[in-house]
C-alpha cells in the first residue's frame, strides 16, 4: 500500500488509557496511520491547524473545549475532515449530529469495526447514525 493511500487519523480523548487502546487497535490496520493524539478539543484544533488529518476520532465529553465545540469548528474551517464522535453516552447522538459529526459511535460497541467505520466514513458510505 502506498503512503498516499493511508488514512491519517487524529485521536482526541481526555483519557490517556482510551487513546492508548485506540492506538493499539488501529496500528494493526495496514491502511490507517495515527498522526497524533489530543487530550481535549483545544489541543485537537491546534494539531489540525498544523496538518489536517483525514479523520478525527472525537470524544465528546472533555474539559476546556469539548467534542461538540471542536467538531463545530472543524466542520466550519476544514469541512473535508471527517469527524467520528466516539462516546459512552447514547443520549449525545442528536447533539453530536447537530454539531456536524459525520458518524456517531458508542465506545465498546461490539458490533462495530472501527477500522471499517473509518474507511466507510472517509468514503461517505455510512449514514451519520451508527
What characteristic shape results from the CA principal axes?
globular
Report the helical percentage. Answer: 25-40%
> How many domains make up the 3D coordinates?
1
SS elements, strand count: 5
**What's the architecture in CATH terms?**
3-Layer(aba) Sandwich
Order of helices and strands: EHEHEHEHEH
CATH level 4 superfamily: Response regulator
Q: Helices and strands: which structural class?
A: alpha/beta
CATH class: Alpha Beta
The helix tally amounts to 5
Keywords:
single chain, 130 residues, alpha/beta, Rossmann fold, 5-stranded parallel sheet, 5 strands, globular
Write the topology of this structure:
Elements: E1 7-12, H1 16-26, E2 32-38, H2 41-50, E3 55-58, H3 67-77, E4 82-87, H4 93-99, E5 103-106, H5 114-122
Parallel strand pairs: 1-2, 1-3, 3-4, 4-5
Helix pairs in contact: 2-3
Structural write-up:
With 130 residues, the protein is of the alpha/beta class. The protein has a single domain (3-122), classed as Response regulator (Rossmann fold), CATH 3.40.50. 37% of the residues lie in helices and 21% in strands. Strands 2-1-3-4-5 form a five-stranded parallel beta sheet, with helices on both faces. Strand 4, helix 4 (93-99) and strand 5 form a beta-alpha-beta unit. The longest helix is centred in the N-terminal third of the chain and has 11 residues, at 16-26.
